Amino acid sequence: MIDVVAPVKTDRLSLRPFAERDVADVFAFESLPEVARYLYNEPRTSEECAALVAERAERTSLRAEGDSVVLAVDLHGTVIDHVSLAWLSEQHRQGAFGFVLHPGHQGRGYATEAAAEMLRIGFDRLGLHRIIGRCDTRNTGSAGVMERLGMRLEARFVESEIFKGEWGGELHYAMLAAEWRASAR
Ligand SMILES: CC(C)(COP(=O)(O)OP(=O)(O)OC[C@H]1O[C@@H](n2cnc3c(N)ncnc32)[C@H](O)[C@@H]1OP(=O)(O)O)[C@@H](O)C(=O)NCCC(=O)NCCS
Predict the structure, then answer these.
(1) Is 139 exposed, middle or buried (0-12, 13-18, 19+ CB in 10 A)?
(2) Ligand 1 centroid vs 89 CA: distance in angstroms?
(3) Protein residue with least CA distance to atom 10, ligand 1
(4) What is the pLDDT of residues 82-93, one digit of tens each?
(5) What ligand 1 atom has the least distance to the C-alpha of 81?
(6) How many domains does the chain divide into?
(7) Is 156 within the bounds of a domain?
(8) Is 32 contained in some domain?
(9) Residue 34's pLDDT is what?
(10) What CATH number does the domain containing 63 carry?
């Protein structure tokens, strides 16, 4: 069982549980059409962000299969990103991670730096065997994060779903615990 209550520090960032005061920061990027472009949700309203922050604030533990952790990525007191880790299977030791970064902070490696901590929690603390990440085939930013982390492209699904009214495809990336250890992050 994993509890992430104390902030997780990286070179430049602090990953911590969400709090009510983060609503305006979250709205600043989750309301933007370019952020929602390849996500299943539409740009979020302020009310939706408030509800989301309240829900995410509770997501700090991995106690059983099906649980997920969602952390606010804090840069000098402002939330610029969120990262998540879902425990998909206890028997098969599988997980999935995700990340969403404010466009004003893109291009500096922050998403990669924060997402690496989700892999670290999954592999080193939870003992997962394999962690996956999925993205739209057109989402080069997301694919770039997963490639920089050293994940393998395992599959490219073509027109596998109707996404926002049109046929969309998916890239499936994965990393094994042994590959994580070999990458020596
Ligand atoms: C996906 C997303 C997080 C990628 O953002 P990003 O800024 O490209 O990713 P990073 O923060 O890791 O930055 C990487 C870029 O910074 C550069 N960079 C600069 N300094 C760096 C450093 N110290 N370390 C690593 N990369 C660095 C990299 O070269 C890379 O640039 P490039 O793509 O031109 O090669 C962002 O586009 C996003 O949030 N999109 C909307 C939500 C979304 O689609 N989420 C994913 C759902 S699957």
Answers:
(1) middle
(2) 28
(3) 109
(4) 999 999 999 999
(5) 39
(6) 1
(7) yes
(8) yes
(9) 98
(10) 3.40.630.30
- Does 2 reside within a domain? no
Domain of 65, in residue numbers: 9-183
Pocket residues: Cβ below 6 A from ligand 1: 35, 38-39, 98-101, 106-112, 135, 139, 141-142, 144-145
Give 6's pLDDT tier (boundaries 50, 70, 90): confident
Which amino acid, 135?
C
DSSP H stretches of helix in the chain: 23-30, 33-36, 46-57, 110-120, 140-148, 177-183
Q: What is the pLDDT of residues 13-54, one digit of tens each?
A: 999 999 999 999 999 999 999 999 999 999 999 999 999 999
87 half-sphere exposure, CB direction, 13 A CA radius: 23
Give pTM, 2 decimals. 0.97
Question: Does residue 3 sit within a domain?
Answer: no
